[in-house]
Design a protein that fits this description.
The complex is a heterodimer of chains A (about 350) and B (about 325). With about 350 residues, chain A is of the alpha/beta class. Helix content of chain A is about 45%, strand content about 15%. Chain A contains 15 helices and 10 strands. Chain A has an 8-stranded mixed sheet, sandwiched between helices. The chains are: A alpha/beta (about 350), B mainly alpha (about 325). Chains A and B meet through α1, α3, α5, α6 and α8 of A and α7, α8, α9 and α10 of B.
Chain lengths: ~350, ~325
């Protein structure tokens, strides 16, 4: 065995280099302090209370596909789908000639604390679908649900199958009680009635604490240590800051919707049991008879694949496609791999079913 | 290997002596002695002197230290003494490990020393959150109740009584009960915080163990970390692995949820107290606003139901109607 040692001089040099890089990089950090998010041109076409429906301006020859409505999660902002020109799933879909609509749920405040899942699914989503149907004079729309928005889309498609031509779910939890699902484990002993009663809405900051607590040493320390290595590259710093903004730009959750989602989905796993009830109607996944494309990330630590894959066992469709990508939850929206593969996959899948 | 033990001891000695001097002054102050130090020209026992003109903070605050404050300060100082002892032990163990000529033995000795120290620090941390005022806990004192009540209950042979144990009677019973609920919740909170902190200590202990094992393997393969950054990255890998094991366990989920639930209950009780005051001043309360919001929501739901009925009553869409629908600015 050689006497390889932890040389104090090497250590000291690294610390000095680190300090110098940090000092030199402060202007780059300051320059990137205000970042812009959302890169594609869009127009607000419909509003209902704080919810806005956006339609993106076409940038390519129409592919002749029924318009696609994207339903994002209530947690975090939907601009993740259109973060910057080289990291925008929406832009790539527009380049494929798709007609894209996006629901922006807005920032709920104290007056929205009693909004429930029925309001979101049978109210807001249905309002947006109706608007698109009316505008285009069509009977059905393509629905693309992302994360929690995917769960909402499953509920909506089950309750209103006649309005959905094709359903695409991305990183969508279906079975909420699989062994890898850490968030679900933490939610089981939570007295959600008391938590919501104490705060009205549930703050985005509290949810952020939960998310970074999934991997605290990496997400609260190491990533900022690694940032120092990026400081010499303004583009990388800007990307980092943009992502940082998205991560912590977290709307509060309407209390009642949060209570129902936590209790019904995380604690009672009602979606796969067929016992979710919205507007007096049972959500039965067997009603989902339209074609389904289920996309999930192999490395997803927020919605593990085991939470998404079981969808195949519960939907009534005979046209079900699973598409696994070797990415994490956020990588699904922004990684080079997904930017390259996902838009083409989605567009081809939709075109084949037009 | 260059012998840098002398340098390490030099700097840690300076740090520890400074801390000991700091502690000595607080100790004097808590005991009611006049504070001594560089500003008074007296040579302190620790041999460490502060620069001339350095303010003697301890002396400035000493006037306010009486009764419960002095008791809390003594408890704080007791914890601080334990902390200094543990720090001193860690430094000595570190120096001893560095003296090992064999890299593998050095790594193992260092990892063992870290684990031992972690245990010491964990005990200090645990005692901080002990709800029992008899323990060294600083937070425990908050749950201990009034000194006169404790003295009286002791004299009457009732054991230890706190405010939370006094039966609520008469005109103020509702408010007293509310305050008692709040006090019990704070006691629960400190206990649960301590329990969660102990689980975190287990995580750190497990992480250190994993780091020691990983380092041993790396040394055996002649691939030890060469820089602090490499060591840090190894530490993060080990810590995340240790944390993941704990975070997935039912006891961690339970401890975390219990703490969150208690915090929520505390907020509800606090809001209730504030609302009782705002009601007296005829100011709007959260409860009133909630009632109004519920009524609006019910009205909106009714409106949605009526709209849906109207939609159903509309004639079905025809193909000619469809053609007339799209707006000019929206391509089909």
């Amino acid at each position: 065995m050689t006497d390889q040692k932890f040389d104090p001089q090497v250590a000291m040099k690294e610390l000095v280099d680190f300090s110098q890089k940090f000092a030199k990089g402060i202007p780059a950090l300051q320059a990137a302090a205000v970042v812009e998010v959302g890169c594609s041109e869009r127009e607000a076409v419909f509003r209902d209370d704080k919810v806005t429906l956006y339609r993106f301006k076409p940038i390519a020859k129409p592919a002749g596909v029924t318009p696609v409505l994207i339903s994002y999660a209530l947690v975090n902002r939907p601009y993740m789908m259109d973060l910057q020109s080289d990291r925008s799933l929406i832009r790539r879909l527009l380049e494929q000639g798709l007609d894209i609509y996006l629901i922006d749920w807005g920032y709920p405040d104290g007056a929205d604390r009693f909004l429930d899942l029925d309001d979101y699914i049978n109210g807001f989503i249905d309002g947006c679908v109706q608007f698109i149907l009316d505008q285009h004079g069509i009977d059905k729309v393509n629905l693309l649900g992302v994360c929690q928005g995917g769960t909402f889309s499953l509920c909506y498609a089950s309750l209103h199958p006649e309005r959905i031509k094709n359903l695409v779910t991305m990183v969508t939890p279906v079975d909420f009680k699989t062994p890898e699902n850490l968030l679900s484990k933490w939610a089981q002993d939570m007295d959600v009635d008391t938590v919501v009663a104490s705060s009205g809405n549930v703050s985005g900051e509290m949810l952020n604490v939960a998310y970074v607590s999934l991997m605290p040493f990496r997400l609260m320390q190491q990533k900022y240590v690694s940032l120092v290595d990026m400081l010499g590259d303004p583009k990388q710093v800007e990307n980092f800051m943009r992502m940082e903004k998205w991560i912590f730009d977290s709307p509060d959750q309407a209390g009642e919707a949060f209570r129902q989602f936590t209790k019904w989905f995380f604690q009672e796993n009602r979606l796969i049991k067929g016992t979710v009830e919205l507007g007096g109607q049972k959500v039965d996944l067997r009603n989902i008879t339209m074609p389904v494309l289920n996309i999930f990330g192999k490395q997803d630590h927020l919605v593990p694949p085991s939470a998404s894959i079981p969808l195949a066992n519960y939907v009534g469709t005979k046209d079900y496609t699973a598409f696994e990508m070797d990415v994490g939850h956020i990588g699904m929206y922004v990684s080079g791999k997904s930017q390259k593969q996902l838009p083409e996959t989605i567009t081809k899948w939709l075109k084949d079913r037009e | 290997m260059s012998d840098n033990r002398g340098e390490i001891n030099y700097w840690t000695d300076i740090y520890l002596k400074g801390q000991e001097e700091f502690l000595r002054r607080w100790n004097d102050m808590a005991a009611g002695k006049p504070a001594s130090g560089s500003t008074t020209g007296t040579e302190p026992a620790s041999g460490f002197t502060l620069p001339p003109g350095w303010p003697n903070w301890a002396e400035l605050f000493s006037a306010g230290l009486a009764g419960t404050s002095a008791e809390l300060t003594r408890r704080y100082i007791s914890l601080y003494e334990q902390y200094l002892t543990a720090t001193r032990a860690l430094t000595e163990a570190f120096s001893k490990a560095m003296a090992q000529p064999d890299p593998l033995a050095r790594s193992q000795e260092f990892a063992n020393a870290l684990l031992q120290s972690q245990g010491q620090f964990a005990r200090i941390w645990q005692s901080m959150f002990s709800p029992d005022p008899a323990a060294a806990g600083t937070t425990g004192a908050l749950a201990g109740g009034l000194p006169w009540l404790q003295a009286w209950s002791r004299d009457m042979g009732l054991g230890r009584l706190s405010m939370a144990d006094i039966p609520a009677l008469g005109l103020t019973r509702e408010r007293q009960e509310a305050l008692q609920r709040l006090q019990r919740l704070f006691t629960d909170y400190f206990e649960q915080h301590g329990a969660l902190a102990m689980l975190w200590n287990e995580v750190i202990g497990d992480a250190l163990k994993r780091l020691g094992e990983t380092m041993a393997v790396r040394f055996q393969k002649n691939e030890p970390p060469q820089t602090p950054r490499q060591l840090y990255d190894l530490w993060v890998d080990c810590a995340e692995a240790a944390y993941a094991t704990m975070a997935h366990s039912p006891r961690y989920a339970k401890a975390q949820a219990e703490l969150g639930n208690t915090l929520a209950k505390i907020r509800i009780e606090q809001r209730g107290l504030i609302e009782s005051v705002t009601r007296e001043l005829d100011l709007p309360t959260r409860s009133e606003l909630n009632t109004v919001h519920r009524r609006i929501k019910e009205m909106k739901a009714e409106l949605r139901r009526l709209r849906a009925e109207l939609d159903r009553a509309r004639p079905p869409r025809t193909s000619s109607a469809r053609a007339a629908k799209p707006r000019a600015d929206l391509p089909n």
